[in-house]
Amino acid sequence: MTLVLGFVSACGEQRVVLFDASALTTPDSGLIDGGSDVIVLDASNRDPENCGPAAIHCEDDEYCVAGLCVCREELTRIDEVCVDTNANADHCGDEGVTCAEVCADGECVTSCPSETTDCDGGCADVSADPLHCGECNRPCGSGRLCIDGDCIPFRPASCMSCPCDLCGTRTCCEYPETTDPVCVDASTCASDTSTEESET
Fold it and tell me: What is the spatial distance between Cα 89 and Cα 190, in angstroms, rounded to a whole number?
């Protein structure tokens, strides 16, 4: 039996589960059996610019999981908007928790830590924050990652892990806070991902 990793989403939350490859069918499963032990992900079910059968374009604060637009990792859906409760003065740590000063790492504090920037009362790491990339209120599009303060294009990798030959000259990286491989138009990955150069 070959076990494969999959992502299941519900109500804006994601969890990783294992599937028995013998029980999967194509195309409904979103996975393609590439051989006895090789499972290739169907990238169309993970493309935030053409997400799922309806080819929906996910919003800047979303990405595509199993053909559905869900909140980016570390964001929580509140009133139809994806919010970073680690850095939001109106929802600090949880929905409706308001800070008198600023919110850092989900806690109300008097000032932002030195490595972060005060963006409307939330302490954001502008080098990696997809909602505040490089500067406050500069979101990256759903098909881009924030790497060293720049919004860098990526495409979902049709592989289970890095390195991924299908990335070609792009760099294979893990999507932030996940093990989901993506092909990035950069020489390095975001600071909180593991970098593997793809072989050509």
Answer: 25
Token pair listed for 175: 């999507």
What is the percent of the chain with per-residue pLDDT over 90, rounded to a whole number? 40
pLDDT in tens, 90-116: 999 999 999 999 999 999 999 999 999
Angle CA(97)–CA(11)–CA(177) in degrees, nearest 5?
75
* Pairing label, strands 102-104, 68-71: unpaired
Strands 102-104, 144-147: pairing is: unpaired
Helix (H, G, I), strand (E, B) or coil at 172: strand
Q: Can you tell me the distance from the alpha carbon of 130 to that of 190, in angstroms, rounded to the nearest whole number?
A: 11
Q: What are the E-state strand segments in the chain?
A: 3-10, 13-20, 31-33, 39-41, 62-65, 68-71, 76-78, 81-83, 102-104, 107-109, 117-119, 122-124, 144-147, 150-156, 171-174, 181-184, 195-197
**Residue 69 — φ and ψ, nearest 5°?**
-80, 120
Cβ contact 14:8 at 8 Å: yes
Between 113 and 37, whose confidence is greater?
113
Assigned token pair, 61: 């604060």
Which residue has tokens 């194509």? 26
Q: Which amino acid is at 172?
A: C
